[in-house]
TrEMBL record:
It is found in: Cell inner membrane. The keyword Transmembrane applies. It comes from Ideonella margarita. Residues 31-257 form the ABC transmembrane type-2 domain. This is Transport permease protein. InterPro entries: ABC2_TM, ABC2_TM_bact-type, ABC_2_transport. Signal peptide: none annotated. Keywords: Cell inner membrane, Cell membrane, Membrane, Transmembrane, Transmembrane helix, Transport. The chain crosses the membrane at residues 34-54, 66-88, 108-131, 143-168, 174-195, 234-254. It is a multi-pass membrane protein.
Length: 262
């Protein structure tokens, strides 16, 4: 019998973990699938309703507010979901580390794949629904730039998740800190309102947030004529990703045995 390579073993492990995560996430029934896909649409509907009640309009500048909101909301949820899910992947799968083939990084990769697939599907379904009821444009102006933004958000979210998974084993309260940080980061990334009218001094501080850059770049790549917030670029998110992954991989390598034995 031909012996499998390390790469083949890891692929098989990640696939098995992915199947396990799917069963856990969806509960093995159709209701779980409907909830995972329907929850973001319900959140979108609630935010649109609140906006129309308070402001009396469905537009944000020259763009329809539901499109403006969705193009920011789903990529942010992907980023946040990856950060939290990857951070919790070690503790949630600790019982599997008794099998020598299963490593902590495998659980992180499996959750990253699942979270990315779910949120990508949510974005496609939500855009199809908005297109069906008459909103446009539901097709991005520059699909490659949108995919680049999503890829960078995946790398940033997973990198922070790996880093946090190591930190939380030493500082358990780090998990609470990440959860508390999610809401202010949501507001300061320009998800539900434009930051164009903010004072320049405040904008200069907010531009240290890499998620803000990627959300703005995603909207500019999707909506024709969208005006980027001054100072937004690709360089800062890339710098964040390099720094985060450098720290994450080094700390993971130093603590990899501790993660298995904790």
């Amino acid at each position: 019998m031909k012996r499998r390579s390390s790469w083949q073993i890891q692929k098989a492990v990640v696939f098995a973990l992915l199947m396990r995560e799917i069963k856990t996430r969806f509960g093995g029934n159709l209701a779980g699938v409907v909830w995972v896909l329907g929850a973001p649409l319900l959140q979108l509907a609630v935010l649109v309703w609140i906006n129309t009640m308070l402001r009396g309009r469905l537009t944000r500048g020259s763009f329809e507010f539901p499109l403006f909101l969705l193009i920011g909301m789903v990529p942010y949820q992907l980023f946040k979901g990856l950060w939290v899910q990857v951070m919790n992947s070690v503790s949630a799968n600790r019982g599997l580390f008794g099998f020598k083939q299963v490593k902590p990084i495998d659980t992180m990769v499996a959750r990253t794949v699942l979270e990315t697939c779910i949120d990508s599907l949510v974005l496609v379904v939500a855009m199809a629904v908005l297109g069906r009821i008459g909103y446009a444009p539901v097709v991005p102006l520059d699909a490659f730039a949108v995919m680049a933004c999503i890829l960078l958000l995946v790398l940033l979210g997973m990198g922070l998740g790996v880093l946090s998974a190591v930190i939380v084993e030493v500082l358990p309260r780090w998990q609470l800190f990440v959860q508390l940080l999610a809401m202010p980061l949501y507001l300061l990334s320009g998800i539900i309102f434009s930051l164009h009218g903010f004072p320049q001094e405040m904008v200069s501080l907010l531009l240290w947030n890499p998620v803000l850059h990627l959300v703005e770049l995603c909207r500019a790549a999707w909506l024709p004529g969208y005006s980027l917030l001054p100072g937004v670029n690709w360089t800062l998110p890339l710098a964040w990703i390099i720094v985060v992954w450098t720290l994450a991989l080094n700390l993971y390598w130093l603590r990899r045995r501790k993660l298995v034995m904790s």
